């Protein structure tokens, strides 16, 4: 016959719950050192409780120990898979990993784990974080693309193509120059000039 499942009213589990509650109280007071002590004691008493690891990970996050937060969440996920039926907790763990990566400036991994979280358990707060991470990545990509020297090269190529009468090529070069340096008004002006020259208005265009 199968052994009876361990009762949740076992003294160790009750003690663990008391330690968790004490940890939560300390956490709310932002006494993270005391909170961590209580959570770790609770883990010793109830080592297969993934929620306790989530709480420990929260402390690590608040104390800027982001890699430790990630490692703790990974342990939480492993326990969840072992005991089964913990989709909400797994979702929260993935979301916390995503938040840690976001704090570390790694938007790519943050997006990856926020998406994993939403697969396990839909949460509007996590969905919002995912959108923020995607926006941060887009801004980071744009900033990384800026290069004033290359912008100047493309502007000069645009000027040359304009003089040759290749308006389409000139517009493409000015557009790339703008992408490389959005702060340079000259490329905007030159691109506008190329577009304007198509109209039959007598004028002299001077590229800058």
TrEMBL record:
**SUPFAM superfamilies to which the protein is assigned, alphabetical:** TPR-like
Which Gene3D superfamilies does the protein's record reference? Tetratricopeptide repeat domain
Q: Which UniProt keywords apply?
A: Coiled coil, Repeat, TPR repeat
Q: Does the keyword Transmembrane apply?
A: no
Indicate yes or no for the key word Kinase.
Answer: no
In residue numbers, the region (Disordered) covers: 1-22
Coiled-coil region: 119-155
Q: Which InterPro entries match?
A: TPR-like_helical_dom_sf, TPR_2, TPR_rpt
Q: Which domain of life is it from?
A: Eukaryota
In its UniProt record, a GO molecular function of this protein is: Hsp90 protein binding
Q: Which sections of the protein are TPR repeats?
A: 16-49, 91-124, 151-184
Spell out the Polar residues composition-biased ranges: 1-12
Q: Enumerate the PROSITE patterns for this protein.
A: TPR (PS50005)
Q: Which residues form the signal peptide?
A: none
Protein name stated in the entry: Uncharacterized protein
**Species annotation:** Beta vulgaris subsp. vulgaris (Beet)
